[in-house]
Amino acid sequence: MATEFHNLQELRHSASLANKVFIQRDYTDGTICKFQTKFPSELDSRIERTLFEDTVKMLNNYYAEAEKIGGQSYLEGCLACLTVYLIFLCIETRYEKVLKKISWYIQEQNEKVYAPRGLLITDPIERGMRVIEISVYEDHGSSGSSSGSSTTSSSGR
Amino acid sequence: MKNCEYQQIDPGALGTSNTRTSTTLPCGRKNSQRPRRKWEVFPGKNRFFCDGRIMMGRQCGVLPLTIGLILITSGLFFTFDCPFLVHHLTVFIPVIGGVLFVFVIITLLQTSFTDPGILPRALPDEAVDIERQIDNSGSSTYRPPPRTKEILINDQVVKLKYCFTCKMFRPPRTSHCSLCDNCVERFDHHCPWVGNCVGKRNYRFFYAFIVSLSFLTSFIFGCVITHLTLRSQGVNGIIQAIQDSPASIAELVICFFSIWSILGLSGFHTYLVASNLTTNEDIKGSWSSKRGEESGNPYTYNNIFTNCCVVLCGPMPPSLIDRRGFLPPDDAPQTVTSDTELPPFMSKNDANMCTQGTKELLESMAHSSVIQSTCAPGTPKTAPVSQESLLHTISITVSPPNRPPSTGCSGHQALRPIDVSCSQKGNKRAALHTHKPMLRVPSPPCSLGHSPIILSDAPDMGFIPLN
């Protein structure tokens, strides 16, 4: 039991949340859901810029698809109006379908790209679509001084 | 089971008293607390019914009056006027009246009971991040965050205001409703007649309601006039007609007084829809040319038809507050965050986790759906404990630090005994933290804890010293 406790404590120390990086919304095109693709400096040493930008651009594309105003959305809107909007209780809107795709995409990105680098993306819908929250984990087991460097970097900012 | 034993060992090994075991129920033992849904801890002033399926503003305003007036007028119409009109004119009169009545009632209920587009409040670590960004741009000494941030939308400068209640810069067209204590996207107005805010998600219902109500009112008014006219054309005259059908006079009076305001409102909102404006913007004159600046509405498509289609037939955005989602059980993740400092799922695989590195840990966390479901954006007064060790500004920038913890739990209408126990837990967890300075506390990505008191205890904790 004591051994388990000791190992779990080591693991606890080696799996500590060091920081959270928040990618804010980009309102230059109006109120549509779009996130800034500017690469945050906190992730400089953790992930390649292109990978990060690809993820954010893909998310922006998904949200643009969800909010696209075109034939399908008009059809959905008119049908909803004719049925006194009761149809929203029955069918899944296109927006909801795209949100599911986004969840799946974020999970895939976490598994393939971000978790191996000690990062974790939170689905923006969990944050009210305000931010993309990226949790930065420090692996103390592999890099001994990383905890000190992480706190130094966060306090020195 | 191992997790339970670990929890028992952990406080003993550190020589502290674990008061949580007396109040919380570790896994494996009896758990008398049922899982709670997020609506039960929603911080805004809203009422929830049917286990979170239906929501409305706290003050339902004159909604009962609205429903009563509509029901009474329509009831009188169908009872007293329709039989005469069916006999003398056509059977389609009650049919049309019935269709309009159903439209009105359904759209009214949808306007009242739909989430208008409430933005969940920012979590404390988000709030601190915003504060840090603001501080970075200026001096290092503490000052209140600036109230506005200017951005460019379609080449026009728009000011975003900082909401001190929700701890975030409000997106464009978002406004904070003081009656509901929420930031609402594309805020139009708070309508007392429907007892709810009118915002992005329920504007189309509201517009359909007022348009169909104006049709219904006009229809009933016209039918009653026709009824009285037909009756009075008989031998007896108008006085006898009124005596034969007194209910018609009541309908006439109600319809006459309401028709002006309803028609006026419909016309006004048709203008707003056509120019893609909100009532809030129109009243404030946000895009008025009278200001002397070169400002126009940056959100308009400069085409009446397109504006109408976008506002009324655009995609229906989802509700962001996830009222029916479950809060993480009080014991597992909260115990995890304060005592064991493990992500929730680790309690199930601790034997394997002992030998896994962080990267495997994170990959399995990415697989876990628990991460996605344990986020509670509606609990702004809690703090992920890990942040306090790293972000020294949290004790002074996250406000209000002195708000009693029960507010966070009982901010909604359904006051439950759980709320009292929740605040007790918060107190006890704070005490626990002040006695356990050696533990670093990584929280899961979406951390949750009913422990606002910890905010004020942050500087006292012997964590890794900063500055």
TrEMBL record, chain A:
The keyword Membrane applies. The keyword Membrane applies. It is a lipid-anchor. Residues 21-133 form the Golgin subfamily A member 7/ERF4 domain. It is found in: Golgi apparatus membrane. GO terms for cellular component: Golgi membrane; palmitoyltransferase complex. GO terms for biological process: protein targeting to membrane. Pfam families: Erf4 (PF10256). InterPro entries: Golgin_A_7/ERF4 (IPR019383), Ras_palmitoyltransferase (IPR051371). It comes from the Eukaryota. Keywords: Membrane. Belongs to the ERF4 family. This is Golgin subfamily A member 7B-like. It comes from Carassius auratus. The gene is LOC113073995.
Automatic annotation (TrEMBL), chain B:
It catalyses: L-cysteinyl-[protein] + hexadecanoyl-CoA = S-hexadecanoyl-L-cysteinyl-[protein] + CoA. Residues 159-284 form the Palmitoyltransferase DHHC domain. The chain crosses the membrane at residues 62-80, 86-109, 205-229, 249-274. It is an enzyme of class 2 (transferase). GO terms for biological process: protein targeting to membrane. Belongs to the DHHC palmitoyltransferase family. This is Palmitoyltransferase. Pfam families: DHHC. Its EC number is 2.3.1.225. It comes from the Eukaryota. Residues 15-25 have a biased composition (Polar residues). GO terms for cellular component: endoplasmic reticulum; Golgi apparatus; membrane. The DHHC domain is required for palmitoyltransferase activity. It is found in: Membrane. InterPro entries: Palmitoyltrfase_DHHC, PFA4/ZDH16/20/ERF2-like. The lineage of its organism: Eukaryota, Metazoa, Chordata, Craniata, Vertebrata. PANTHER family: PALMITOYLTRANSFERASE ZDHHC18, ZINC FINGER DHHC DOMAIN CONTAINING PROTEIN. The gene is zdhhc18a. It is a multi-pass membrane protein. It comes from Carassius auratus. One of its GO terms (molecular function) is protein-cysteine S-palmitoyltransferase activity.
